[in-house]
Amino acid sequence: MKVKVFGMAGCSGCEVVKKMFETHDVAFDYLDVMNPDNMALAQKYNVRGIPVTVVDNGTLEVAFIGSTVQTIQAIRDRVGI
User: Fold this and answer.
1) What is the mean pLDDT of residues 7-28?
2) Domains of the chain: residue spans and CATH
């Protein structure tokens, strides 16, 4: 499973998502949307707000937008934590 988190410095929701993955030892790539090197990938996933969490299980990629309680639970369910 591959997990990507799009975010930026100062984003409290991004920190919530990052902390969740770190707490549960889930490997993830953090992609700062302000870094020009990440722009093409952000465009691929149509990132318009942050955080955006993309979970790829090898068969299906699912993108989650935000860090509401419901979104965090959906991410946890998808990742299995």
Assistant:
1) 96
2) 2-79 (3.40.30.10)
What's the pLDDT at 21? 97
Q: What is residue 26's predicted lDDT score, i.e. its pLDDT?
A: 96
What phi and psi values does residue 29 have, to the nearest 5 degrees?
-100, 125
**The pair of three-digit structure tokens given for residue 67, joined into one six-digit string:** 């860090």
pLDDT of residue 29: 97
3-state secondary structure 6-75: EECCCCHHHHHHHHHHHHCCCCCEEEECCCHHHHHHHHHCCCCCCCEEEEECCCCEEEEECCCHHHHHHH
Residue 46 φ/ψ, nearest 5 degrees: 55, 45
